[in-house]
Write a structure and sequence with these properties.
The protein has helices at about 10-20, 50-80, 90-100, 100-115, 120-130, 150-165, 180-195, 205-210, 230-245, 260-270, 290-300, 320-330, and strands spanning about 1-10, 25-35, 35-45, 140-145, 170-175, 195-200, 220, 250-255, 275-280, 300-305, 315. The protein is an alpha/beta fold. Helix 3 runs antiparallel to helix 4 (about 100-115), helix 8 runs parallel beside helix 9 and helix 10 (about 260-270) packs across helix 11 (about 290-300).
Length: about 325
């Protein structure tokens, strides 16, 4: 297994470097952000193309060692969980390969094992463990929150387009006064969709904007990205959530490319705001195991998944079968 770190100015650039160096099968192990840069730790279960016979022998030896490591890991799981059947090993391996937290992985394997009776396929048992599909989108006002760059604005545009196709009148509200061009971006989407776009710089302005959008069947509220350590931004977000009212849905938008630590940090930042559902984005970059596992453990349903930027096509409801395929990917 090859493990490397890639640093760039943005997450998109860092992931592009990962894909260029390790290929599309690379697994994101960790992401970390610092002022002006993003670092992604990634791994791939292969070695670079060998040069010469000696290199080929070395690659063969490394592959044999990887096989031994897998056997040792499997044996460790069997000792920790006596009676763990071989039919569960693909799930266990996939969760470990994606970097899912060990405690969460063990709980998910156990929940899946309980549903394997009667010859049920592993994917079906895992889907059953994940629970029923999220109802999602039932409330008239929906507030979207999440880390910077995880796709809140694009997600809102996709949902708006889909709901307009369904015959609903949609209004868009932006509260992002931090990111350069944020308001202009949402206004561009609004013009393309023929939907009104309102701007609200603070909680009081949001109340006024929601009143002006009283004729809309659905109001989607965009917010500025925030994360752990950004206390003032998170406090502003909490004030916006309160201003939206108890009847407004709070939806977390999170990237599937987040590693285990990044997923935990995201939850730490937004858990006090009590998100009711999550949209998992960037499934075209990573299968999202760490974030999916954490959301499952915390009881937060995934309402939609996104795998691209096409509007509105690259957004689909998150069924248990779809999420099970994500967790089994490795």
């Amino acid at each position: 297994m090859t493990i490397n770190r890639y640093t760039a100015a943005t997450m998109q650039q860092a992931l592009a470097r990962v894909k260029a160096a390790l290929g599309p099968e690379a697994v994101i192990l960790e992401t970390a952000s610092a002022p002006g840069e993003v670092t992604v730790t990634a791994a791939v279960d292969r070695m670079p193309a060998p040069i010469g016979a000696a290199s080929g022998e070395l690659v063969g030896e490394v592959r044999q060692l990887l096989g031994v490591v897998r056997e040792l890991v499997d044996e460790h799981w069997r000792r920790e969980r006596p009676g763990l059947g071989r039919e569960l090993l693909p799930l266990q391996r996939a969760l470990l390969a994606q970097g899912v937290d060990g405690v969460i992985a063990a709980a998910l394997v156990q929940a899946t094992e309980a549903r394997l009776g009667g010859g049920a396929p592993l994917a079906a048992a895992l889907a059953g463990a994940l629970g029923e599909p999220s109802p999602g989108g039932a409330k008239r006002v929906r507030l979207f929150m999440g880390p910077p760059g995880d796709g809140k604005t694009t997600t809102i545009a996709k949902l708006a387009a889909q709901q307009q196709r369904a015959g609903q009148r949609v209004a868009l509200v932006t509260t992002d006064t931090y990111r350069v061009g944020a308001t202009a971006e949402l206004e561009t989407y609004g013009r393309a969709l023929g939907a009104p776009v309102l701007a609200a710089a603070d909680a009081r302005a949001l109340v006024q904007a929601l009143a002006r959008a009283a004729d809309a069947d659905l109001v989607l509220v965009d917010t500025a990205g925030a994360g752990p350590g950004q206390g003032p931004q998170l406090a502003e977000l909490a004030a916006l959530a309160e201003a939206a009212g108890a009847g407004a849905a709070r939806t977390l938008v999170a990237s599937a490319a987040a590693g285990s630590s990044a997923a935990a940090w995201t939850w730490q930042a937004f858990a006090p705001l009590a998100p009711e559902a999550c949209v998992l984005t960037k499934l075209d970059l990573a299968p999202g195991g760490p974030m999916l596992g954490l959301l499952w453990r915390r009881g937060v349903p995934v309402s939609h998944v996104a795998a691209g930027r096409r509007i509105p096509d690259d957004l689909e409801p998150a069924t248990p079968d779809r999420l099970a395929r994500c967790l089994l990917a490795a």
